[in-house]
């Protein structure tokens, strides 16, 4: 049996190593910390696979393959069988924060998503390298939340997952939406242009109508002036004729009076 002193020493050494490890981790940047964790993961757990016996027994791997869920819901947690608990432990250990995208059909607005493989998790693909399956850019990366719709166990589900992408690949995420927006703007501009042209044609018609109306008014005014001028001439001529007749009569009367005086 270990003595109390050796037990205290063991606990002290373990806590000291823990503090040293934590201090070392805090001094690393995100990428170096990722590499440290992955190296320790391989060192602690390795990549060994279970050796299958010839006996038709159900292994942990078979259980995981049959019971694994992309997203475990609260209803799944309520099933407390050993197989489900094993799947839940595997799920909790699975690095599921980032995903990988297939953008080969991005022009049609179709983006395929999947979780990363163990190799991709260790290499940092989808976290420190662009999450587009066909891109290896590791600079100017941005993180985007994308909606993942999928069918699992005959049930349709959705989950928000993170996708890391470079600037060029990020544009592919909204390519179709942006194109539809551009087409919509072009249609609106054409519609506005046609409306303005129709309005301008309407204004030209109104101007021509106004000009025609003004010409008609001028013609009527000129015709009226001509009629008034002719009427004034007739009146003046009649007036002069009457004046001339009265003058002749007056002269005749005066002449008769003069003859009468001379005869006397």
From TrEMBL:
<protein>
    <submittedName>
        <fullName>Protein FRA10AC1 homolog isoform X1</fullName>
    </submittedName>
</protein>
<dbReference type="InterPro" id="IPR050645">
    <property type="entry name" value="Histidine_acid_phosphatase"/>
</dbReference>
<dbReference type="GO" id="GO:0016791">
    <property type="term" value="F:phosphatase activity"/>
</dbReference>
<feature type="region of interest" description="Disordered">
    <location>
        <begin position="180"/>
        <end position="221"/>
    </location>
</feature>
<dbReference type="InterPro" id="IPR019129">
    <property type="entry name" value="Folate-sensitive_fs_Fra10Ac1"/>
</dbReference>
<feature type="compositionally biased region" description="Basic and acidic residues">
    <location>
        <begin position="180"/>
        <end position="191"/>
    </location>
</feature>
<dbReference type="Pfam" id="PF09725">
    <property type="entry name" value="Fra10Ac1"/>
</dbReference>
């Amino acid at each position: 049996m270990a003595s109390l002193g050796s037990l205290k020493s063991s606990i002290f050494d373990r806590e000291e190593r823990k503090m040293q490890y934590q201090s070392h981790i805090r001094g690393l940047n995100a990428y170096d910390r990722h590499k440290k964790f992955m190296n320790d993961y391989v060192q602690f757990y390795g990549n060994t696979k279970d050796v299958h016996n010839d006996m038709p027994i159900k292994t942990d791997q078979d259980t995981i393959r049959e019971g694994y869920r992309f997203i475990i819901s609260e209803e799944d947690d309520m099933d407390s069988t050993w197989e489900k608990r094993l799947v839940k432990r595997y799920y909790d250990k699975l690095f599921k924060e980032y995903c990988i995208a297939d953008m080969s059909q991005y022009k049609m607005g179709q983006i395929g998503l999947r979780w990363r493989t163990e190799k991709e998790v260790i290499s940092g693909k989808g976290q420190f390298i662009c999450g587009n399956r066909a891109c290896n850019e590791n600079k100017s990366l941005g993180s985007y939340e994308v909606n993942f719709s999928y069918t699992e166990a005959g049930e349709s589900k959705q989950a928000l997952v993170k996708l890391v992408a470079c600037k060029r690949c990020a544009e592919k995420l909204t390519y179709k939406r942006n194109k539809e927006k551009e087409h919509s703007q072009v249609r609106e501009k054409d519609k506005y242009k046609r409306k303005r042209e129709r309005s301008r044609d309407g204004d030209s018609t109104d101007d021509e109508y106004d000009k025609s109306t003004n010409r008609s008014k001028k013609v009527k005014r000129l015709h009226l002036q001509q009629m008034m001028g002719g009427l004034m001439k007739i009146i003046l001529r009649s007036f002069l004729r009457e004046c001339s007749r009265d003058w002749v009569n007056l002269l005749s009367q005066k002449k008769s009076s003069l003859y009468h005086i001379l005869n006397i």
